[in-house]
User: What shape does this take?
Amino acid sequence: MYKESFNIIMVEILLLILTVFGWGILTRIELLVSASIFAVMIFFTIYFFRDPERNIPERDDVVLAPADGRVIRIHDVSHFSLSEASAKIVTIYLSLWDVHINRVPVSGRVTYLNHSPGCFHPAFDNRSATRNENTMIGISGAMGKIFLKQIAGMIARRIVCRLQMGDQVIRGQRFGMIKFGSRVEMVLPQSVSIKVSVGDRVKGGESIIAEKI
Assistant: This one.
């Protein structure tokens, strides 16, 4: 379970304890309903922040999925400002039921890092790609320079990114998360071949998104 969940779970447990000790104030039905609600909240939080191990491919010529979810868009852009070149963009949508731990897609060095405040459109809405709060990460390595954008959604209001400029990273390693529904975009160079299609479900740190041509 991811450590970001500990404070949330402790608050929920405290509320559950206070509810139980409210036996003399609440009726039996009110106590049962309140305790049930807090118990469900605790179990959902534990489920949401789960952090399963993954079988990370031992290949240097691939780009791995940075998150669990469903591929909702794949498109080309003729000019991506940060790389000053054309690029391929793969978008993954994370529902409330997906694992929300984010993993590094390629080995290399963090050469770009920028957090931008913004709106909170639903993560499945394409407007969220350009208008929502996000963190953009650039990694340079054997696959060239790729960019990864963590995008907050309507419910998700906090992006966690533990990377710093200059960090050396290894594909598949955990680096952060986006809480409660979100979206991740990968900006890849034209020197890779996309290996997923729209509608595919992927696993962070395990599924291959692209291969070097």
